[in-house]
């Protein structure tokens, strides 16, 4: 049986106008004895409200809270709260403040035993020298130690902490955190803490419970912190999972902030110029490949095609893009070329979400970068890397990619497997947001990565890493970034969809023209877009095969934005992506793969847009896929292709349940 059970809690407050504000809704949480749980989220998400209901200081509107199977209906000495403001009686000394709680709760004990408890807890928090001082003679950290000692002295079943260290300086806070951990571990205390501090939550917690924005806040995610105890504040950052945990929480908090902004800006569809919707929220990730979106905004292509109110929403990671599309906060987005298929076949939480693409915005532009120490060891080829891995079997090497369905991940895995390296067993491939790649490489947390520009060039310029292979070598002409929209959105706003493709197709053509490159680079470098130096931004075409950036032995990765066969979505390419996702166990291979391809690739929308722009010659197919290892992929028999692969995960097949497409209401 769980020690604490929060069962389907709802909490609402009456408003002056007779309505109700629903602070929390549908909260379910179980806490085991001895666990340390942190509640984190933005102000107003109901963290303290939930803590107060566990303490019995407030009652839920619906649902119940149980402590060891007993419903919590009122405050009690089995639950002690430590507040941020200390709550000490100013006319009493340290000893007297602790004694007040002990004598009231443990009055049944002999006086000598109560005095022993008091003195024990004074020593526990290191305040023997201040035992007879009143609060006004204590520092903030000392006052908080008194509050913790008083709470623990009555031997509560549950310790509840409401931002207990929020008002303290960094040094005092760090020392108290370590003391609290030691006390909780030695006394097997169960604790629930409200905090705004991400690092504090990771340091102290067994689990971090993340709450979504209010109103109607709910538990958005629970993160298990699998770091061994005892933990030391200065050492915990060296745990290999620390920055992954930190990134996960920061991503969640940033995403909630983004959602709040989008909710505030979101309006009903505005129809104008014969379009069903001219007010769009379009997501992008700060990479050189976002150039078509940025140019369409800055050079007026959106407006020219009737899209008068377009907001570009900058996301820090591709996960932000997928969540924005899934949650309906984004109308459209720049996506890795594998994301529409991945979402459609159920890559996100095993729930198929039909997403379509009618435009390939970039091809190529990715590269594989390794830590510069590998260059110093003479690792210049895939075969060199393989022998190095064979010679260091006891060392686990980690590579970064930006999303399981990104071409970065699929190309990296294909490249490794072609060299006899199993990416699921011989190395680790972990997901890291693009902007963190260089920092993670420099810190030694990863050995290399596959990513789009400007992050490969930047690693070389800053002498942190070098490019060992570009996608020009692995698959020259592969789809890099695509335009993605939900299928129901495309059905609800068909004219808007065509207008969006037209505006971006014109922007792609603008980005390709060399006379515009300096202007485009300057626009991309701005704070609202890439926020990086011009020296890191390259737009050159794929005919240039020389890179003078030392120590790179290869050319930098060039983008293709526009041209014959560049922008039309390809069913063959999406089928290859589907096989690779199945190859590495990301999703089962769909038995109804022909239907999936028809649903994902909106060639008809692209053809209409190209024809209306007078660019009908761009609509022809690219033909078979030729890869660097001599393999030619066609759409003839994907099952036989998967069976022929020597290195792969166990491959499963399943029917993807795609509902009949129905346009959502505008």
From TrEMBL:
Spans traversing the lipid bilayer: none
Gene Ontology terms for molecular function: ATP binding; ATP hydrolysis activity; nitrate transmembrane transporter activity
Any single GO CC term annotated in Swiss-Prot or TrEMBL for this entry: plasma membrane
Membrane topology label: Peripheral membrane protein
Keywords assigned by UniProt, alphabetized: ATP-binding, Cell inner membrane, Cell membrane, Ion transport, Membrane, Nucleotide-binding, Translocase, Transport
Keyword Nucleotide-binding: yes
Main location: membrane
Keyword Endoplasmic reticulum carried by entry: no
Cleavable signal peptide: none
Subcellular location: Cell inner membrane
Swiss-Prot/TrEMBL GO biological process terms: monoatomic ion transport
Boundaries of every ABC transporter domain copy: 4-238
Family annotation (Gene3D superfamilies): P-loop containing nucleotide triphosphate hydrolases (3.40.50.300), Periplasmic binding protein-like II (3.40.190.10)
Family listed: Belongs to the ABC transporter superfamily. Nitrate/nitrite/cyanate uptake transporter (NitT) (TC 3.A.1.16) family.
Protein name in UniProt: ABC transporter substrate-binding protein
Organism in which the protein naturally occurs: Leptolyngbya sp. NK1-12
Lineage: Bacteria, Bacillati, Cyanobacteriota, Cyanophyceae, Leptolyngbyales
């Amino acid at each position: 049986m769980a020690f604490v059970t929060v069962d389907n809690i709802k909490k609402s407050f009456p408003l002056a106008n007779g309505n109700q504000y629903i602070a929390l809704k549908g909260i379910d949480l179980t806490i085991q004895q001895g666990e340390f749980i942190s509640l984190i989220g933005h102000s107003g998400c109901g963290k303290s409200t939930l803590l107060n209901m566990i303490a019995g200081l407030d009652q839920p509107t619906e649902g119940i809270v149980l402590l060891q199977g007993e419903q919590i209906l009122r405050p009690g000495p089995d639950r002690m709260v430590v507040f941020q403001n200390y709550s000490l009686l100013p006319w009493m000394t340290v000893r007297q403040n602790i004694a007040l709680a002990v004598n009231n709760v443990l009055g049944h004990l002999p006086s000598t035993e109560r005095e022993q408890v008091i003195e024990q807890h004074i020593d526990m928090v290191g305040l023997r020298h201040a035992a007879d001082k009143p609060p006004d003679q204590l520092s903030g950290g000392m006052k908080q130690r008194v509050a913790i000692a008083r709470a623990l002295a009555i031997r509560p079943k549950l310790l509840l902490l409401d931002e207990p260290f929020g008002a303290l300086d960094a040094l005092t806070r760090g020392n108290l955190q370590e003391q609290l951990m030691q006390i909780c571990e030695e006394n097997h205390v169960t604790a629930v803490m409200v905090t705004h501090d991400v690092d504090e939550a990771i340091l102290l917690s067994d689990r971090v419970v993340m709450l979504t924005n209010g109103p109607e806040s709910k538990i958005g995610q629970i993160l298990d912190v699998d770091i061994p105890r005892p933990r030391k504040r200065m050492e915990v950052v060296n745990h290999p999972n620390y920055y992954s945990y930190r990134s996960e929480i920061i991503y969640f908090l940033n995403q909630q902030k983004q959602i709040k902004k989008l909710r505030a800006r979101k309006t009903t569809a505005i129809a104008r110029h014969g379009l069903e919707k001219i007010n769009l929220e379009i997501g992008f990730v700060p990479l050189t490949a976002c150039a078509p979106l940025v140019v369409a905004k800055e050079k007026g292509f959106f407006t020219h095609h009737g899209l008068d109110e377009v907001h570009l929403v900058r996301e820090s990671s591709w996960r932000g893009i997928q969540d924005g599309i899934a949650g309906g906060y984004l109308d459209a987005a720049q996506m890795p070329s594998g994301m529409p298929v991945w979402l459609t076949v159920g890559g996100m939480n095993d729930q198929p979400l039909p997403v379509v693409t009618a435009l390939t915005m970039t091809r190529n532009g990715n590269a594989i970068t390794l830590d510069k120490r590998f260059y110093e060891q003479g690792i210049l080829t895939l075969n060199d890397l393989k022998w190095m891995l064979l010679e260091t079997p006891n060392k686990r090497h980690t590579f970064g990619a930006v999303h399981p369905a990104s071409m970065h991940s699929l190309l990296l895995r294909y490249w490794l497997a072609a060299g006899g390296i199993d990416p699921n067993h011989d190395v680790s491939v972990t997901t890291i947001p693009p902007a963190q790649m260089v920092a993670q490489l420099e810190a030694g947390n990863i050995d290399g990565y596959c990513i789009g520009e400007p992050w490969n060039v930047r690693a070389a310029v800053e002498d942190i890493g070098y490019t060992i292979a570009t996608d020009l070598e692995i698959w020259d002409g592969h789809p890099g970034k695509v335009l993605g929209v939900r299928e129901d959105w495309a059905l609800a706003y068909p004219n808007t969809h065509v207008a969006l493709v037209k505006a971006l197709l014109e922007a792609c053509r603008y980005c390709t023209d060399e006379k515009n490159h300096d202007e485009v680079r300057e626009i991309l470098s701005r704070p609202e877009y890439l926020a990086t130096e011009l020296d890191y931004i390259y737009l050159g075409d794929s005919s240039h095969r020389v890179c003078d950036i030392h120590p790179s032995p290869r050319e930098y990765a060039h983008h293709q934005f526009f041209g014959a066969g560049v922008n039309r979505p390809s069913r063959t390419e999406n089928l290859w992506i589907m096989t690779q996702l199945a190859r590495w166990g990301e999703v089962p291979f769909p038995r109804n793969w022909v239907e999936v391809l028809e649903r994902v690739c909106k060639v008809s929308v692209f053809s209409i847009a190209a024809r209306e722009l007078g660019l009908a010659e761009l609509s022809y197919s690219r033909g078979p896929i030729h890869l660097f290892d001599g393999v030619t992929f066609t759409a003839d028999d994907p099952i036989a292709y998967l069976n022929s692969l020597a290195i792969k995960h166990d491959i499963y097949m399943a029917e993807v349940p795609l509902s009949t497409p129905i346009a959502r209401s505008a």
